[in-house]
């Protein structure tokens, strides 16, 4: 079993780690384009072409499915990706977890990149899945870039700025960019009022990993007396095979994927 994931940068780590936890025996192919990151300010046409290039590089390794572990690419490039690769290669997009967040009744906040915030795509999801629920869209300029480079001071500044514009009475927060899941604990600490019930954070990694397994007709591995053999890890950076970037090791998900006996190559 081989699962590919693509993103502009290290935002694919949460979904890759989720796949690895569900099926440690699966080979993983991580294809990203850090040379052109961030994608948010780019035109939809440019994002589509870059997403196609990332998936083509991953497809050369003959995966069973590919996860588009990027909200921006899912918004702009999913139709083109599915037109080129399906049905031979299942393509699984990433959708902000607005539906489960709104199930509790709200109020809900959605943190996303400036390009996604207020977009017709996100507004449609709010209309379809959060009708009647109070929803606040919060743009987070600079946060994805700060996470990409593990710039702790910049992460803190971007999180504090977004938290200051987030209503204090929210019951749930949607992480509408895959990069944000890498700093979920820091986001939670910034938005959680003292003495209030815990705010629920909703990311997409677990759901998209499970959907990928369903699309290829398999299930999470059952606990076994002996551990399953661990799959191989292949990393593609802007079309070139490489090692997992050092910056990935700043995050729990990156360290999980780099840990032996998960093989490199």
Automatic annotation (TrEMBL):
Pfam families, alphabetized: Asp_Glu_race (PF01177)
Glycoprotein among keywords: no
Secretion signal span: none
Chain segments annotated as coiled-coil in the UniProt record: none
Keywords, in A-Z order: Isomerase
Name the UniProt record assigns to this protein: Aspartate/glutamate racemase family protein
Organism this protein belongs to: Streptomyces cuspidosporus
């Amino acid at each position: 079993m081989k699962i590919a994931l693509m993103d502009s940068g290290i935002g694919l780590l949460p979904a890759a780690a989720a796949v690895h936890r569900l099926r440690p025996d699966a080979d993983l192919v991580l294809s990203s384009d850090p040379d052109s990151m961030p994608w948010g300010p780019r035109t939809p046409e440019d994002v589509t072409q870059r997403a196609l290039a990332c998936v083509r590089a991953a497809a050369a390794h003959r995966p069973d499915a590919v996860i588009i572990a990027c909200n921006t690419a899912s918004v702009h490039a999913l139709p083109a990706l599915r037109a080129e690769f399906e049905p031979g290669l299942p393509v699984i997009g990433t959708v902000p977890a607005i539906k489960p967040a709104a199930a509790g009744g709200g109020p809900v906040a959605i943190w996303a990149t400036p390009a996604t915030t207020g977009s017709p795509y996100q507004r449609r999801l709010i209309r379809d899945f959060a009708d009647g629920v109070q929803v606040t869209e919060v743009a987070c300029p600079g946060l994805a870039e700060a996470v990409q480079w593990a710039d702790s001071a910049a992460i803190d500044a971007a999180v504090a700025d977004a938290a200051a514009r987030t209503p204090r009475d929210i019951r749930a927060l949607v992480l509408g960019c895959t990069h944000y899941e890498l700093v979920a604990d820091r986001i939670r600490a910034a938005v959680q009022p003292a003495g209030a019930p815990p705010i629920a954070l909703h990311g997409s990694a677990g759901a998209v990993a499970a959907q990928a397994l369903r699309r290829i007709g398999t299930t999470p591995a059952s606990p076994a007396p002996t551990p399953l053999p661990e799959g191989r890890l292949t990393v593609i950076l802007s079309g070139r095979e490489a090692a997992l970037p050092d910056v990935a090791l700043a995050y729990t998900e990156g360290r999980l994927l780099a840990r032996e006996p998960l093989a490199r190559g």
